[in-house]
Amino acid sequence: MNKVVTGPDEAIFDIKDGATLMLGGFGLCGIPENCIAALVKKGVKELTCISNNAGVDDFGIGLLLQQKQVRKMISSYVGENAEFERQLLSGELLVELIPQGTLATRCMAAGYGMPAIYTPAGVGTEVAIGKEVRSFSGKEYLMEYAFDADFAIVKAWKGDTLGNLIFHATARNFNPLMAMAGKITIAEVEELVPAGSLDPDLIHTPGIYVHRIFEGKNYEKRIEQLTISHA
Amino acid sequence: MNKVVTGPDEAIFDIKDGATLMLGGFGLCGIPENCIAALVKKGVKELTCISNNAGVDDFGIGLLLQQKQVRKMISSYVGENAEFERQLLSGELLVELIPQGTLATRCMAAGYGMPAIYTPAGVGTEVAIGKEVRSFSGKEYLMEYAFDADFAIVKAWKGDTLGNLIFHATARNFNPLMAMAGKITIAEVEELVPAGSLDPDLIHTPGIYVHRIFEGKNYEKRIEQLTISHA
Amino acid sequence: MPLTKEQIAQRIASELKHGFYVNLGIGIPTLVANYIPPGVDVILQSENGLLGMGPFPTADKVDPDLINAGKQTITTVKGSVFFDSAVSFGMIRAGKVDLTVLGAMEVSDQGDIANWKIPGKMVKGMGGAMDLVASARNIIVAMMHTNPKGESKLLSQCELPLTGVRCVKKVVTDLAVLDITPDGFLLRERAPGVTVEEIQSKTAGKLVIPAEVPEIVL
Amino acid sequence: MPLTKEQIAQRIASELKHGFYVNLGIGIPTLVANYIPPGVDVILQSENGLLGMGPFPTADKVDPDLINAGKQTITTVKGSVFFDSAVSFGMIRAGKVDLTVLGAMEVSDQGDIANWKIPGKMVKGMGGAMDLVASARNIIVAMMHTNPKGESKLLSQCELPLTGVRCVKKVVTDLAVLDITPDGFLLRERAPGVTVEEIQSKTAGKLVIPAEVPEIVL
Q1: CB-based contacts of A82: which residues, under 8 Å, 6+ apart?
Q2: Which label site among B209, C71, D35, D121 has the fewest CB atoms less than 10 Å from its CB?
Q3: Mean pLDDT across chain C
Q4: Do C82 and C50 meet the contact criterion of CB atoms below 8 Å apart?
């Protein structure tokens, strides 16, 4: 068994217009840079993107927005992006804002085969509109459905040829959750190693969830808020 | 911050008659041997034990059964235990059998603050009796509640003074789930190390879930089904 | 000649496809691992928390922390990975396991299965069986065609308490290979030398018999 | 003298107890980390997936893979641990975080909070705020008592879209420390030199004034 593909173009070859994609990352941290570039090159349009954020104007998912490839964003926070704002106000782009923990848990639910979960986030707010509210032990919860994504595209630190993944620091974020949740999961990694190289106790994402894997190139890892301590 | 206690007796000092305990382990693999011994010594009674199995006659939870300390077992499989069978048939012991994945997921739900989950396990069987059945996308699921345990007692391979835990091989099983789920979580570990010794990327259970930790002694690690290949 | 248990396992092994993730239950299903065809890479899942289960260890390699769902000491293979029980059943529930093979006491012609409880006998529990049958995309049952009393285990309705409903896709017995279809058990293959009439007589559930029923080739 | 933002943070820091796990929001709450009392060990959670957040890095220690929930580069401390976002919000939802400090645009005398959306302005999203306020056991709001127009931010009803209902336990502003009680805002302390009358005049929600309202001690 070998899940290795030649690179991002092969990895995304069957992503078509109108697809629903999960994209890992928090801000610009831990985003699948190589696959995003390949999606821009391929020019697929009308995408629905489930991702915590929408990148900045000239990096991350912002690159897809620039090319008007995104029809809908499902995110928890979408600031720092002027083109995003323009498309939103003009009606070219749809946005569904959902609480960050709900976003994470709806990914997890998909990965665990749970059709829906209950969370108190958003009870009594406009997020609750149209949703089932249910009381457990005197506390109210919203029922939220598992996501249904055609593809999950994630970025890991290390991966092996069977698709086992390890993440680094806070670049982990949504990546392992989305890896579990995609019908087809594509992983790009900084270092691809032979199966058997990773300690089986210390793998974050079991390879069963990963369908295609490749070693990415030229990671820029742009920093959104460089904050320095002068100590 | 330091969560280290002197040993199992101090760790379980406030477990009282009638308490509900989660006990990690699968069969005799990854069970909290030191704490079980301390519970036997302390002699607390009328316990409700949530644990995948009930040990064997003379080891694991079987030791608590021998002393008639257990009022109710919540498990998925309870074979290999003659005293267990005797108490069950005589009515001294109550048993609630639930599917293994449901057991795991009800622990997880507690750890994730989710009051209930949906699983298809048991639909159309006697497990479904009295439970809410709900259809999602044409498939039926049972609603199962999160567990509510006073204490979770788990066994890890390594742990640090802040309660961060790492498990080894299939001795992981239910341990990290129960660690998240207990109101008070007690961890016994084979090796206790100073905070900062474990790689923050490779910790299975964040210390926030663990209230007391100690380095256990004299692990017997009895094997239930020794199976050898003559190669 | 009816198949031996080993031959049942061997026949099931021919259903394995390259790249499959497979969960093998206790009993005959465990034997399937011995007959994986050459060139077919499969990864075995053990629901207590392992992908990449290897054979039983030699005496010097026994690790009490490393067991399968039957509590037997085992080994790992290259690329194996450990995880907790919620992840394990999560991947089962999410349909990531391609094939589940398990034993049964009874199977109905609608695909219901009973394999965990006999009224009047000490009940040990369902373990992970209910999760597996409720979730797996493809379930093959490996069992004898009849019970020790000679009664059919392929019924129109299960008489024992159910483990799961309408979930079994295929049954491989010592006498036959049968698919579960909306019309009942579809007789696909018969054991070498076993007649369709014998299979018919030992199948209490609805049996659909095609014009041609080839012998099982091992 | 009204408190400075730093002094608001300092007053909130005195609420920290040894062993607390704390989540600090963006803005004034972030400053709380600078005033943790000596001898009080707390562990900071960052909801993007870290327990044990340290200070900002020196230039040579910057790691783009290591940021906080405000996307700022940060460091770790001894005993820190990384996890995914579902675990992170799971520990929040399960009430494992002892204290959450966050900013607000409005707070009601019932403990409702609005801090994510202003109708007519570009809405960036709620991030993790709704999860935090719906789940945290203990929530302190850090904010100015009035908005730039001089209007009270402590209301009987929030006018802006809500982030959460009946969740805030305490409010620390530049003018006062107030507990949320069934009777409304209970005035606990006042900024040095600030009169109860001034606080009353700048509090639109129901204010309960005890006989004695000591000055804040920093």
Answers
A1: A57
A2: D121
A3: 96
A4: yes
pLDDT at B79 over 80: no
Is the per-residue pLDDT at A231 higher than 70? Answer: no
Hey, what amino acid is at A58? Answer: D
Distance separating the N- and C-terminal Cα atoms of chain A: 51
Catalytic residues of D: 47
* pLDDT tens string C149-165: 999 999 999 999 999 99
Rounded Cα–Cα distance for residues B112 and A114 (Å): 14
Query: Which 3-state string (H, E, C) describes A144-211?
Result: EECCCEEEEEEEEEEEECCCCEECCHHHCCCHHHHHHHEEEEEEEEEEEECCCCCCCCCCCECHHHCC
Give the nearest chain A residue to B113 (CA atoms).
A119
To test the contact with chain C by mutation, choose from B74, B125, B222, B223 the residue with the greatest count of C C-beta atoms within 10 A, namely B125
CB distance A208–C90 less than 8 Å? no
Q: Examine the pLDDT at C4 and tell me if it is beyond 80.
A: yes
Question: Residue B20: is its pLDDT beyond 70?
Answer: yes
**Whole-Å CA distances, B83 to B62, B69, B93:** 8, 12, 10
Q: Comparing C-alpha atoms, which of D119, D93, D109, D118 is closest to residue D141? A: D109
- What whole-number distance in Å separates Cα of residue D109 and Cα of residue D179? 9
Q: Which residues contact B22 (CB under 8 A, 6 or more apart)?
A: B49, B50, B51, B107, B147, B149, B151, B152, B153, B154, B174, B178, B181, B182
Which residues touch A32 (CB under 8 Å, ≥6 apart)?
A: A23, A24, A25, A153, A154, A155, A186, A188, A216
Structure tokens that stand for C29 in this block: 């299903």
pLDDT for the residue numbered D17: 96
CA B116-B120-B121 angle, to 5 degrees, is 95
